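Margin note from the TA: students keep mixing up input and output lines. Inputs are the sequences; the output is the structure of the whole complex. Example:
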Amino acid sequence: MLDVQSIRQDFPILARKVNGNPLVYLDNAATTQKPRQVIRTLVDFYQQHNANVHRGVHTLSIESTDLYEEARAKVQRFINAPVPESVIWTRNTSESINLVAYTWARANLQAGDNVVTTAMEHHSNIVPWQQLTRQACAELRYIPVDDDGLLQMDAAANLIDERTRLVAATHVSNVLGSITPIHHLTRLAHSAGAVIMVDAAQSVPHMPVDVQAIDCDFLAFSAHKMLGPTGIGVLYARPELLDAMPPFMYGGDMIIEVTYEDARWNDLPYKFEAGTPNIADAIATGAAVDYLSNLGMENVQEHERQITEYALRRIREVEAVTVFGPHDASLKGGVVSFVHGNIHPHDLGTALDRMGIAIRTGHHCAMPLVRSYGVVAAARASFYIYNTKEEVDLLVDGILEVERYFAHAGAK
Amino acid sequence: MRALSELDELYEEIILDHYRNPRNNRELDAPDLEIEADNPFCGDEIKIQLKFEDDRAAGVSVAGRGCAISQSSASLLAELSQGRTREEMKNSVTLVRRMMRGEELSDSELDDLGDLEALRGVRKYPVRIKCALLSWVALEDMLDDYPAARQQVSER
């Protein structure tokens, strides 16, 4: 189990007050806070090692190159990727997905083909496929979600057919928290001859993820949702696929030889890392991976399951609240989305903020899904390693207090 | 409830009253102008209809769904616009914008805004200013597009 009190000591921001109250940070699905180990790594890099990578013969350049590649190897081990060069640094999950869309999909998608995604995707895993399928005169299909917020796998088996080139699915929904039966989906994709891309933005930070066990072809995630800095993300891809794919961006570092007439592409992974990369943030991502590895991802998952189970029970005690997604914590990640019958999510969010409680309100970058529940916006509490049951209690007490406020305010 | 009493500035009595009992939210038959608007950031929706008689708004309907700020602001708009000319309505849009920017308004300008002054507390919550302005921006767009918008409605 996690020693949450000692973990909290590692996060300087948790000591601050918001509007006069101790911060209760429950917006972890949007971004997580950073431990001092990650912050220190960033500062250390700029103070001690800063130089460009892969080009200098001087000491600092060698150090920064080593640190940069060491961070890649840490990520490789963290997701059990077969080789370091199957890990490509990007800006974030969105860029990782776009990389696959603009290179692999553009080269492989033909008129009459289809891409299969799910009804519970983040916009970042819908919009690229809408554009790509439109350009290729291909079809975009959505695996529906049932009333409990779970993917309808029998429908998936029908939607994925011999014209399916790609299945692009979230591993954990950022709204419902639902966990996709990803091994099952991978088998369906592969037996149809399709490749599968997993949006792991909400899974890699929260549970053990093994890309070889899943047997996925592509997997994307962002560092900032797992204690790391913003502006850095990862695309894992099977090396054979990367070899066959054209580059995404052209420029320095991604070439091996340039003449005035032509250029030859560099080896993996550099073929996909044009220009000076985000060196410091990549290295700090390595520190975030170290931090999570030390805790153990099984422990992280179990902690979140306990908090989520408690939160589901407590929040549903509020009569006017409706919770979306599975009510069984073992079927979902640490995300609880809900609406209150009498208070709009934005009013609730503003009022909770007065008490120092940070939740997300709005469409959560999943407009079609949120609308399918007949609402225009929802409130969401999402948990991480430093959250406690006491914070869940503060949230529930807060909701009740806001209820009382709106019941009496204006009726004075 | 120390923390929440600070909210009184944002959720004035008038605001909550308009939120709970929106004015003029019944759809008009054969409106001269009509516009739908939404705030993609939070999903709030609003629909405004106007019917003119002798260049004055004889019928105003505003309906939608969303937070207390966007919906009460829309209801106040419906109440205020009743009987006004296009120029007068555009003038109140300007006043509401200026109020949200924190500018001092003269006594006669405040008179012109009437109950809308209750929205002044929104200024302290910058992310909510968009909620307050949603219906006003829509009204402005609709009036700017006049008479093209009028044409569109009559062609249906």
